[in-house]
Amino acid sequence: MKSKWIDHKGKQIFHIDLSGLGRNADAFREELAAAESVTSQQPEDSLLVLTDIRDTVVSAEAMNVAKQSSARTTKHICKTAVLGVTGIRKILLDAVSRFSGQRFEVFDDVEAAKDWLVS
To answer: Which residue, among 22, 21, 25, 18, has the nearest Cα to 3 in the 3D structure?
Structure first.
């Protein structure tokens, strides 16, 4: 599992690392399932999440997997920052948000995303 806990300004952030997967839908599904396993063990409305999808192609299959996972884990998440969302990906992220009820903030800069999460 690439995803891991990181510390930022004394607070724990769960970094869901879906970056660099290219078009590998199996790797996307496996990493997201592993991250969901960790996420679902956290108390409700407690988790700060940094999701990185840079250099990953989000296919229709990956989109469906993301929507389902997000719907199952929303109750555990307090805030989510997302890296790697440009162009058409913003429309796809809006679709995930509408389906799951989870809100996302989009960032280009990792440090800005982490600062927002802990603020």
So the answer is: 18
Q: How many domains does the chain have?
A: 1
Beta strands 4-8 and 47-52, pairing class = unpaired
Query: What sign for the dihedral angle of Cα 27, 30, 35, 36?
Result: positive
> For residue range 81-107, what is the model confidence (pLDDT) as tens digits?
999 888 767 777 677 777 777 888 889
Q: Please, are residues 2 and 14 in contact by the beta-carbon 8 Å criterion?
A: no
Longest dimension (CA), the chain: 37
Q: What is the pTM of this model?
A: 0.90
- Domain holding 105, by residue range, is 4-118
Question: 35 Cβ partners below 8 Å, 6+ apart?
Answer: 1, 3, 14, 16, 69
From 75, 84, 72, 70, select the one nearest 113 (Cα to Cα).
84
Q: What is the pLDDT of residue 112?
A: 97
CATH of the domain at 57: 3.30.750
